[in-house]
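re: ur msg from earlier - yeah i can do the pyridoxal-5'-phosphate complex, just paste it... oh wait u already did. ok heres what im feeding in:
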Amino acid sequence: MEDQSEPTFDTLTVSEGEEPFENGSEAGDVVSPIHLASTFALPGLDAEMRLEDVDPAAGEFVYGRLSNPTRHALETRLAALEGGAHGAAFASGTAAIFTTLLAGVTPGDHVVAFEDLYAGTRRMLNDVFQSRLGVDVTYVDATDTANVAAALREETAAVWMESPTNPKLALCDIAGIADLLADRDVMFGVDNTFASPYFQRPLELGADVVAHSTTKYLNGHSDAIAGAVVTDDDALAEEIRFLQQVGVGAVSGPFDSYLVLRGMKTLAARMDRHEANAMAVAEFLDERPEVSDVYYPGLPSHPDHELAREQMSGFGGILSFELDGDIGDAKRFVEALSEFTLAVSVGGVESLIELPAAMTHEPLSPAEREALGISDTLMRVSVGIEGIDDLIADLKGGFAAMDRRQTTPSAEN
Ligand SMILES: *Cc1c(COP(=O)(O)O)cnc(C)c1O
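and the outut:
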């Protein structure tokens, strides 16, 4: 008898959307060709190809902004990995989030968002939606669902969350917030960039729409800027598609689509390794006297550890920690590292470290940073897939550089 079971997640990452002899390929390519054409020859004037009826799934393509075979393969796989019916690929995570929020709100509406949000999304909400489009925004500490409930208003049209957040790795209860919104006409969106669909699937937990910066784990190789949205809601998907193709037009190009499609094939293997390395780094840091706090959902000491165990199938590869010292110590530490590259961004195979107060969260005011608990010695680490012994040795070198200064103050006199 044929085995009728659905392919597993790991299998979908490798092949979903890339059937040989389909998707515009007659040669039987086992990977999706990069279709560069901006426009596609139509079968003839009589052919019933009204723009709205063009169906990429049936191999119909008209113009590259509307759809493209390489992007279509990517969108098909993204939808499958997040367990939704509709996927849309964008030129960046920012474009994906902007387009989704635009689909969900109109002037006069209100948005509730996690205060510990990606700094770029916060700026978008403040400086585009609030200042220019007349959409009011309330930021809440969403680690407690009651705070989300308290912020809801009659005119709340969207709730926008991340979990885990950046840079403090706080979690919100996605299923709990979905329950709270069940009887309301509110678009509940979750930016799932940090967990990736390998460790967390917000649609299954009750979110309406999931967004990604595929620049991060889904591509995984720090060589493309791209974004994605997945939803199971047909009406919302139609609105997002209209904005993606016509209203905004910030689509993922063929080459970037190909890179993300290729990167995703190794998602499961990479995420397992990212997590194992991150856990080892977190445990190592937790033991160091120079470190005052480690923020990683995989540590039992993390305030949301139990929630992480419930709503995620793994803890991810990103953590942050605070040095017991001043900005000078933080700089000496970072400058002594060689395996961890000083750079913003996360989710690539190589380990990166950054100082949020001086880099990603520098645009926020000192008061905003303080309110978010972002001190001058908070460091965010994206743990790569290198050999763990090399990573630990590198961090030890960082502490040695810091301690040398502390233990030999008179050398400078
Ligand atoms: C990087 C990132 C974004 C923005 O994505 P881009 O691809 O840089 O536009 C949004 N959300 C999170 C959580 C991110 O890490």
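cool cool. The chain has two domains: 9-264, 268-403. ping me if u need the other ligands too
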